[in-house]
Each structure stands twice: as structure tokens, then as C-alpha cells.
Amino acid sequence: MKKTRLKFNAPAVLIFSLLCLAGYALNFVTSGWANRTLLSVYRGSLLNPLTYIRCVTHVLGHSSFAHLTGNLMYILILGPILEEKYGTENIAFVMVVTALVTGIINIVFFPFTRLLGASSIVFAFILLASITDVGERAIPVTFLLVAVLYFGRELYEAFFVADNISHVAHLAGGITGSVLGFVMNRNKMGRFAR
Predict the structure, then answer these.
(1) What's the Cα-to-Cα distance from 179 to each of 14, 55, 79, 128, 160, rounded to whole Å?
(2) How do residues 85-118 score in pLDDT, each as one tens digit?
(3) How many domains does one find in the chain?
(4) What is residue 64's DSSP assignment?
(5) Helices 167-186 and 119-129 meet at what angle, rounded to 10?
(6) 102 in a domain, yes or no?
(7) What's 22's domain CATH number?
(8) Nearest CA to 171 among 115, 112, 87?
(9) 5 in a domain, yes or no?
């Protein structure tokens, strides 16, 4: 009889999730210092090295346990599927680029707003998951439907709903995931040769 064992099936996604949990715990024990100093992005001095680090680490910070679990559920559902298709390195690259893009957008266009959370990565994953095997010069209908629904909702909420959510980060994450998805598919940058 074979023994059942645990499998570390999606290293990039699991490590990212553990880092988010560690960031939440660190913020809790420091009474908010970690989020204010390390795990949120906002315009700071260009001479301060933390300004550049926060452009990436802001995706590890979360304002509440509900915020954290809401993001991690999507990441843990979609991430392993995407990591299986594209490989660990490519998915790690998608996460870092998405964090960097949304961090820079926030610094440039919303300098007095602190941005934190992994929802930009969630949106990148959602759009990336809708791009399946793309033939040459083909756009999947599923991608178009998901893009219209998500971008439409985000645009509506950005202009007509007063909340404390960065809809621009969601849009930037979705666009980043879409662009990288088409590039990876076009260049056959998956785990397995096609």
C-alpha cells in the first residue's frame, strides 16, 4: 500500500501565499508599522531605498484578515493551474511584474494614497486563466468575455461607487496579466514544449 504524502505543487504560489501570511502577522505584531513602512506603496523620496522596495512588497500587505483571505483564495485556486501551465519561473515573473506595474502607477498617479494587497495579482491571474491555448493571431472568446465583465465592473465601480478599493490597481493587474499571457502563449513559454 502506497503512503499518501503532501505535494508542494505550486512553489511560486505557495511561497507567495506564505509571504502574505507572514506580512499580515508582522503587521499585526507591529501594530501597523509593517504596512505603513514596508508593505504599502506611496510616493516617497527617490533617495530612500524603501521607495523602490515598496513598489514590489505592497502586494504582501493586507488591511484585514478578510482582505488577505479574499485575495489568497483566488490566488490559491487559479495559481496552481497557471503554474502548471506556464511554469514556476514564469508565474513568479508575472507576480513581480504585476506588483511593479501597479506600484509605479500608484506612485505616479496617486501619490498620496497608500496601496496594499494582492488584488492586482488576482486580476492578472483571472485574465491569464481565461487565455487558454491561443493559436496564431487568435483571441479566445472566453478572454473577451472575462475582460468585458471584469473591466466593465471595475470601470463602473471606479466612477460610480465610493469605496476604499483601488480599481486602477485591478485594471492594471488585469492588463498586465493579459499582455504577459499573450506574450507567453505566442512564445510557447509553458512548462511543457508544445
Answers:
(1) 24, 20, 17, 9, 27
(2) 999 999 999 999 999 999 999 999 998 899 999 9
(3) 1
(4) S
(5) 40
(6) yes
(7) 1.20.1540.10
(8) 115
(9) no
